[in-house]
From TrEMBL:
TonB-dependent receptor-like beta-barrel domain mapped to chain residues: 285-810
Location of region: Disordered: 22-68
Cleaved signal peptide residues: 1-22
Species per Swiss-Prot/TrEMBL record: Erythrobacter westpacificensis
CDD domains xrefs: ligand_gated_channel
Source lineage: Bacteria, Pseudomonadati, Pseudomonadota, Alphaproteobacteria, Sphingomonadales
Residue ranges of every copy of the TonB-dependent receptor plug domain listed in the record: 83-188
Keywords from the named record: Cell outer membrane, Ion transport, Iron, Iron transport, Membrane, Receptor, Signal, TonB box, Transmembrane, Transmembrane beta strand, Transport
Membrane topology (UniProt): Multi-pass membrane protein
Protein name (record): TonB-dependent receptor
């Protein structure tokens, strides 16, 4: 049985756990690459905690560690530090917390990390920290919260939806990370630190069964191949029935089917140099990611009635559609991390990464069983297909200098990404209306070109001779990014100047970034729902490119009057370059997003075992990149990608964690965020005057004399250059950000005479109302809620075997996780947080 201090080291505050300390756990250096010296240690030959602790939980036995056992070692600032010594607001989640809280994806973090909000629409992750995040639903735009896996960035919001498995810890950095984390980390960074190979044979297995016929199986094996070559292989399978059904097809909705595997080889080239090679594969094929029917967009405007009336599902978690929602994803990545200690004070690290991501999403945008076509309803077809093909390369080279009163990190970063998304709207998953062929041919369009833009080749129906018709909207974009940066950060102990300043450290950092962005959006649109005319956009006619550069500084001062108290202030800037989007004929590349952030904090350890961390901050953000769609236009919808003028925010984050008694541990985290638009004039997608076409029935100027369409003023002269019906949103709250959020976590041990024990643990999570758009409409929000998770865990005396009974969302609270105004169907859709789930997990390690 592990010691109580070591067990307490598994505790986290709102997700704060206690990863391994440097001398005991490979893989906690500034690049998370294991050092060859550490990996050669066999725990059986050293006076340390049991091997299972290191292999699975990364816990250090305080009786042999020169660092307090209550310390949490993180690499948030690209070097090893205890959490209490990091002058930034950071949350760290260790293996034990991730596993016992049943964290399988990033969306699960928001229940235990209050400052993180997560939404999901169009199969894209919408991660927000402190009111900054992903504000678009068309692919192409980078996220405001960066995701890194072992130091390598994951650029696509769609690729951030993959599962979490075999992790040593997760670090959540709150606030802009413009110096050490490039590529648009204006809101923060989430760092996934994977478990690394060990020099001794170790492994684990976990099997979970729950309601909705959920099965999760995860396992890993690690050990030496030779004295200088180590390996690790981990895999995970997730299956679950749907939370809802499609009453038309009988298929499930929001089910889950995922497979993933990761392999590692570590080559200890010498006592001071090692190379870690990692390969990862992920596959998903299910009916998840569904947007459900919520309400008509224009309930009092007959000319803009939704296209699916009479075919909506009755149960909010069901989705009636003639076409099943489908999400299919395949992605793989390779990372090579070379680390070498050139001397006692200088080391270098190089992280090279390649990632390929392919995904397809099918959904019917009328969210209804009604089959729309000119032949059946006289309406536009509404079945959407979105396919994404993305490749990215990145390389980061770091030099690290560590002296008694001086730490320096300098480096260079390169990133390249090429995206080729396809967005189609037609009659079914792979075809449009039959009459589309005649309309295209009459317009002189080469059918081969139309098929190419739709992303498939001409084919015949099985058993017949009817040709599959191109869809009425086909967009095949080509989006590219090349980014370069040089960065550095120095921590200067001012005691080198005079002993009177021994307690003070000056932090100076900066990053210079350049990005070249290009965009092309060729498309074919058959207007009026397929009647024509045909509108065509070429690659040459839509190609555009822009270059951006910026310098983001960071200046901070730390005061540590004693080992138990750290007071700090930091000024930091962040930069997110402009980008294009996949929108028919678009030549828009928006302006950059820039943030200036002030943060002050105090980290204190009191009564030996209680840690109290408080951070207060304020920021100004200019040029927030936002996306919306408005009904109407030749395709039935129009995309607007724009910059909001200004956002102002202030807030605080309070983290408290500690051991009340030897058997009772309590922790909590509180987040307050007041983030609002200071200046933002924009169009309202739910204002019928902004709809460019009258819809069905046709517009009647007698009964509706002022229906001004997008592109013309609301009143006065009809100069198309005049801004249209714009409203000022100053004072409105930003998207996906509750004003108040908290989490309370408790653990209580019941020991038995034979050394085994049962741990009872629970979480209470609360969030105030969250708005999913900038318009502060109740229909596009989630009401305040409180959720409770609970579990009981039995561990044997050797901590080799455990059984957990668990329940999440114990009282079955129903709340939205996002909303989206579907312009094509003229309705508002939403996604849901998971309902009550419960089950049992059996685990063993060796």
């Amino acid at each position: 049985m592990k010691s109580k201090t070591a067990l307490f080291a598994s505790l986290m505050l709102a997700g704060t756990s206690f990863p391994a300390l440097a001398q005991n756990a490979p893989g906690t250096a500034e690049t998370d690459a294991p050092s060859p010296q550490d990996s050669q240690l066999d725990p059986a030959e050293t006076p340390q905690a049991p091997a299972s602790d290191f292999a699975q939980e990364g816990v250090t036995d305080p009786t042999t560690s020169p660092v307090d056992g209550n310390a949490i070692v993180v690499t948030a600032q690209r070097r090893e530090q205890t959490l209490q010594d990091v002058s930034a607001s950071v949350i760290a989640l260790g293996t034990d917390r991730l596993q016992t809280s049943q964290v399988n994806g990033l969306q699960d973090l928001q229940t235990i990390v209050p400052s993180v909000s997560f939404g999901n629409d169009f199969n894209q992750a919408k991660i927000f920290i402190r009111g900054v995040g992903a504000n678009t639903s068309t692919t192409g735009n980078a996220t405001g919260v960066a995701l890194h896996v072992d130091g390598a960035v994951v650029s696509r919001a769609e690729a951030q939806l993959t599962s979490l498995f075999d992790l040593e810890r997760v670090e959540v950095l709150r606030g802009p990370q413009g110096t050490l984390y490039g590529r648009n980390a204006t809101g923060g960074s989430i760092n996934l630190i994977t478990a690394k190979p060990t020099s001794y044979l170790s492994g684990y297995g976990r099997l979970t069964y729950g309601n909705y016929n959920a099965i999760v199986a995860e396992g890993a094996i690690s050990g030496p191949i030779t004295d200088s070559v180590l390996f690790r292989v981990a895999s995970k399978i997730e299956n679950r029935d749907g939370f809802g059904d499609n009453p038309v097809t009988g298929s499930e909705v929001d089910d889950l089917s995922r497979r993933m595997i990761r392999g590692m080889l570590q080559f200890n080239i010498s006592d001071t140099t090692d190379l870690l090679l990692s390969g990862e594969y992920f596959r998903q094929n299910d009916n998840s990611g569904a947007i459900h029917y919520l309400r008509a967009s224009f309930p009092d405007v007959p000319r803009l009635a939704p296209l699916g009336i009479g075919g909506y599902a009755e149960d909010p978690r069901d989705l009636a559609s003639e076409t099943d929602v489908g999400t299919k994803t395949e992605t793989y990545a390779f990372t090579g991390t070379l680390r070498s200690e050139l001397s006692d004070v200088v080391s270098i690290t190089n992280i090279a990464n390649y990632r390929s991501f392919e995904s397809s999403l099918f959904q019917d945008l009328d969210l209804s069983a009604v089959v729309n076509s000119l032949a059946t309803t006289g309406q536009s077809t509404t079945v959407q297909e979105r396919r994404i093909d993305s490749e990215q390369y990145s390389n980061e080279l770091q030099f690290n200098v560590a002296l008694d009163n001086f730490d320096l990190i300098v480096g260079g970063f390169y990133f390249h990404e090429r995206q080729r998304p396809i967005d189609n709207v037609g009659l079914a998953r792979r075809n449009g209306q039959a009459q589309n062929i005649d309309v295209l041919q009459d317009a002189g369009v080469n059918l081969a070109d139309a098929y190419a833009l739709c992303g498939y080749s001409p084919d015949t129906v099985v058993g017949g001779s009817s040709q599959i018709a191109p869809k009425r909207v086909c967009i095949r974009s080509n989006l590219g990014t090349d980014a370069w940066a040089i960065f550095g950060q120095a921590n200067i102990g001012l005691g080198m100047l005079t002993p009177a300043l021994d307690a003070f450290t000056l932090k100076l950092g900066g990053r210079y970034s350049e990005e070249d962005v290009d965009s092309a959006n060729p498309a074919i649109i058959i207007a009026r729902g397929g009647l024509g005319p045909v509108i065509r956009f070429t690659t040459e006619g839509t190609f555009t490119e822009r270059s951006f550069s910026d310098f983001t500084p960071e200046v901070g001062l730390e005061w540590q009057p004693n080992p138990d108290v750290l007071v700090y202030y930091t000024y930091a800037e962040g930069f997110k370059a402009g980008s294009g989007e996949n929108s028919a004929g678009s030549t828009t590349i928006v302006d950059p997003e820039q943030i200036q952030n002030h943060e002050a904090g105090i980290k204190a350890t009191v009564l030996d075992d209680i840690s109290v961390n408080l951070a207060v901050y304020s920021y100004d953000l200019e040029g927030a990149q936002l996306n919306k769609t408005i009904a109407g236009g030749p395709s039935g919808y129009q995309t607007i990608f724009e910059n909001a003028a200004a956002i102002e925010a202030r807030g605080l984050e309070l983290d408290i964690f500690g051991r009340v008694t030897d058997t009772f541990r309590l922790s909590g985290s509180l987040s307050y965020t007041d983030a609002e638009y200071a200046d933002f004039e924009t169009l309202d997608p739910l204002d019928p005057r902004n709809v460019a076409t009258p819809g069905v029935p046709a517009y009647d100027p007698v009964t509706n004399p002022d229906p001004t369409a997008f592109g013309a003023p609301c009143s006065g002269d009809l100069d198309p250059a005049t801004p249209t019906c714009e409203i000022q949103l100053a004072g409105n709250a930003v998207r996906n950000t509750p004003e108040w959020a908290f989490n309370v976590h408790a653990e209580y041990d019941i020991p038995f005479a034979n050394g085994s024990e049962v741990t009872l643990q629970g979480d209470v999570t609360h969030r105030s109302r969250v708005y999913f758009t900038e318009y502060e409409r109740e229909i596009e929000s989630s009401a305040a809620y409180t959720m409770v998770d609970a579990s009981a865990i039995f561990r044997d005396a050797d901590d080799r075997f455990s059984v957990q009974l668990w329940a999440k969302n114990l009282f079955d609270v129903d709340r939205k996780s996002s909303t989206f105004a579907l312009a094509t169907g003229r309705l508002i859709g939403n996604t849901w947080l998971p309902p009550r789930t419960f089950g049992a997990t059996v685990a063993f390690n060796y």
